[in-house]
TrEMBL record:
The keyword Chloroplast does not apply. The lineage of its organism: Eukaryota, Metazoa, Chordata, Craniata, Vertebrata. Residues 454-466 have a biased composition (Pro residues). This is Transcription factor E2F8. GO terms for molecular function: DNA-binding transcription factor activity, RNA polymerase II-specific; RNA polymerase II cis-regulatory region sequence-specific DNA binding.
Amino acid sequence: RNVLKTPLKQAATSQVVLTERQPDCQPLTTPPKPKETSPVEPWTPTSNLKMLISAASPEIRSREQRKQLSNSSTEVLQAKHCLQEHLLGDEYEKSQPSRKEKSLGLLCHKFLARYPDYPSAAQKSYICLDEVTEELHVERRRIYDIVNVLESLHMVSRLARNRYVWHGRHNLPQTLQALKKVGEENKYIQQIQMIKKREYEHEFDPDGERNEGTASSLGSSEQSEMSFVELPGVEFHAASVNGRKYKSLRVMSQKFVMLFLVSTPQIVSLEVAAKILIGEDKLEDLDKSKFKTKIRRLYDIANVLSSLKLIKKVHVTEERGRKPAFKWTGPEVLPNIQDTKLETTSTTCSPPVSESIPSKEHCSKNLFPSKGKQNFTRHSSLIKLVKSIENDRRKIQSAPTSPVKMSTSTYQSLPVFPSTITQLPAIAKPQLEGQSKTAEEMQMKCALSSPEAVPKPEPSQQPTPSQPLGVCPASHSSVSPVILPHLHSGVSYAIYLHPSQAHTVTTYSPGFMLQPLPCANVTGIKSNNSKVLNKITTEEGDNQITTAEPTKPLAAEERPEMKSETSSQRCLKRSQALQENNLIKRHRGDEESLGTSLTFFPSGYLIPLTHCTHGTKADCSNKEKAGMCSLQHPTYSSPISGVIPMTASELKTVNIPAFHITPLNIMLSPNSIAAAPVLSNSCLNSSNASSAPNPSSSALNFMLQHIGLIPAGVQVPANPVLQHVPVSSQAENTSYSSGSTNVQEGKVITSSLQPSAPKEPEEPQAVTESFFRTPGGPNSGSSLSTNSDGTERISQGTLYIPQRKLEVLED
DNA sequence: TCCTCCCGCCAAGCA
DNA sequence: TGCTTGGCGGGAGGA
């Protein structure tokens, strides 16, 4: 076999060589002469041009190719030998295509050029591997690499031996949505966080014992169970479907894509990806070679994905060095699977908020069509999903009515949230949609779920079931609560958005860049800043790593710039961690260059809503009472008191699963603690007058009292955001709290998030002391527990203030 | 020196 | 049994 393959490849090479050398080597003209016109000749500008032209008409090209390639291999071999004889060794070597020219990425480009992105249904393209290998002059093995990745995206599917069907990008939106769902279900965000945390722990305590809680928390069985995610109608016919499927490049590719889809910003380092793909449970005894192998495969996949323009190579520069990473540049993926127009029509939208929870039956029906052969290789998470839907429904229906109801419906409109409900396939949305719902309700939910999605509450943008993704009117005013479903252990949280935070933001990064901070106190953070610095650079000098998400410019551009500049500057001034002027300059420069700049998170409330029940109408009515339910009142104030000032765009991009792990960095000085109602009930007494009119304060207080977070009689402004949390002199980290990844001049300054710990009420010090409290550690409080997966759980009523920190790295 | 990833061995699995 | 498919890791080119 080797005898057959190797000469073939060399023959291909020799064609190139001969073509280029011909003018100078007359004796060599005979065999390769016809190949001068080879349209696939990739090594000269002329041939590249020909290739491009032929790409427009692949059939013609194929015909020509077949004709040309009909030359016997012996002729080619003869030519090669002849060439070798006439060329010096060095010359011959130089004549070989460089490594780059043989790269998988380039090969993939050539491969893709053969087929249209969106083939019409009539013109089904079939891929014959033999032809492809011949025409592209590559080994079969390489084509498999490409095809496997394309298969993972359902751009091709295997028809038979040697034969594939080209689907193009038609299936891409659905595939990505499906992958995102599965990725959320697999809690990849948490895994990423855990890996980063572990990295940190290892870095600062290399000899120390591994945190068993975290060590065992990853690599769940789900991970190993993970199989190929299919789409209805795109069947999987891999030859070794039952054998090596689980290790295959397809699955790996899908997982890799999932990491991007669940991360915010959508940047994934190879290292983290490799670890996740290997499975964290195996990391303990991970041998280096396995890791290296995984990295190799990831490069292979990344090359193909790059050719598809789905990702782009970037670099993350950390203390330990420059790490290769990739940034998602593909279409923004939305949670609902509808039609293929999604990709082009709804890249910046949020899902419709008016949807109701699809029934299990609907879900199953759509996921696993009963007619004919089942098209899905069922992912375990999908089965769980259906079950969880049922359970959630039951809970919702049986739960007493409460003002929190809204959160239920909000679940589905928060694509990035890991709630199982959120992950419901949106397939059945339109049908299940409470079509009787009023536009008002819909809009209100819309504003709730993604107030940042669309800044203008124009009726024309009101989401309708026909709209694949909710284009929600934005609420600019006062408090913008958002229900965060199922953060820790299924606990929902409510977040209030302060209008002053409503300015645009860069994406919040809970992903790979998150680095635990090595500080046990505020100053400690400062001293260890460098440890957690991350810098991302793109090879292309892309200076908009996070903000320039091509599909998410809406909020950033349209949102009124409110206080970002001043607040950020204020925060910066107070930042002792950023003493270096140049860092500040960079920071400011980032803001300016980004146009929308940073958002800083003051403290706020993030309140678990475990006991809150769901229901739309009561909730709406409550909100209406508060004057926030109608379209005319984009301002929404949830009776639930959770308040976390954050920007709308943050909410849009924030990854809630990560958020609950390492979200806000609220470094409060003792002085400011009193102003941070989050920390203790007593703090709720903070009576700072809210500068913003707050129509819902009574409702808020009612809720707070109702759920026992504040004593009766205590009044809390419904908008206890920044005004309650004056940034202290030690609160420098607040200035980072946006967690934004900022880019300037090709560099991205990323946030460093640290494993957050719930804060002990009445113990302001816990804010800092609990930074790296490990589960069960000295700082564990009664309100804190650890889930089986190692994640921390806060019991009901606990106010949870995650912390994170953004550091600016100067070159 | 490290990153990147080409290359091809060889085993699993299919026809 | 031959061929297809693709996991895997050595090692070389490139930065």
